[in-house]
Write a structure and sequence with these properties.
Elements (H helix, E strand, L loop, with lengths): L1 E2 H8 L3 H9 L7 E2 L6 E3 L4 H13 L1 H9 L4
Antiparallel strand pairs: 1-3, 2-3
Helix pairs in contact: 3-4
């Protein structure tokens, strides 16, 4: 599992965007520490992030569609 900062670096998504995606239930952490509030992410969603990143630049709405319904 990765802390939000490490996951941000690996995914090239800002911490702010990761928090936003968590809030809108688009990309949620696998665990949130109850005491510290730290978010922990697994590498599982990395495929979806890397798959749609180029598409996101041309059409941000595609991100929502493909993360919710990954292309196989």
């Amino acid at each position: 599992m990765f802390k939000i900062g490490d996951f941000s670096k690996l995914s090239s998504l800002s911490i702010r965007m990761l928090r936003h995606y968590d809030k809108v239930e688009l990309l949620q952490p696998v665990k949130v520490d109850e005491q510290s509030g730290y978010r922990y992410y697994s590498a599982d969603p990395m495929f979806n992030i890397y798959h749609v990143s180029p598409a996101m630049e041309s059409d941000p709405n595609k991100w929502v569609t493909e993360v919710c319904y990954p292309v196989k």
